[in-house]
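Quick question: what would this complex look like in 3D?
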Amino acid sequence: SQQGEEDPQALSIQEGENATMNCSYKTSINNLQWYRQNSGRGLVHLILIRSNEREKHSGRLRVTLDTSKKSSSLLITASRAADTASYFCATERIEADDKIIFGKGTRLHILP
Amino acid sequence: EADIYQTPRYLVIGTGKKITLECSQTMGHDKMYWYQQDPGMELHLIHYSYGVNSTEKGDLSSESTVSRIRTEHFPLTLESARPSHTSQYLCASSDRGDQPQHFGDGTRLSIL
């Protein structure tokens, strides 16, 4: 069953602009994670935010979590061509035995 | 990058053949996972393991089987491949607790 759902499905922006992706989920969670997948490769973990946290930063990445709205956002500032990839949110539900469920992803394309 | 390896990267094979997809990690992680991902789509968990001699079926029904005889090795087997098995298969591992998953680069399987 799908837990996380990203919005938008696809996003094209100019290099240097900021990119924002959103994720909504349905049930209570322990944590929410964001991953990046380059074409033809596996996923790379970006950030994990726990249910008692509201915001985390890592370099040019900023993640927010609103448990009351069951939503999260990923902001990439000053985008670069190398940021072109698919971005997935994944949620670990409470009592899910460490299993996580992935959304369908946002395909981000950075234009030169 | 994480030390988790999948072989082969690509496999094109005829219907009815027995296939084993290999996955190995050198991080000593107890937890390992197999996901199935169609192009541009979300990941679906098909098998997972929490340690040696532990295997469980995931959320997506699969005709494949797995084994976990050694901590570092988590092979996936299809006894008789069919065209419906054509997909990308991703292996991942993680440490105990709410730790992120580390992914291999996947095996892209095509059954003719």
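Answer marked as accepted. Chain A touches chain B at residues 1-2, 30-31, 33, 35, 40-45, 48, 50, 86, 88, 92, 97-105, 107 (CB under 8 Å).
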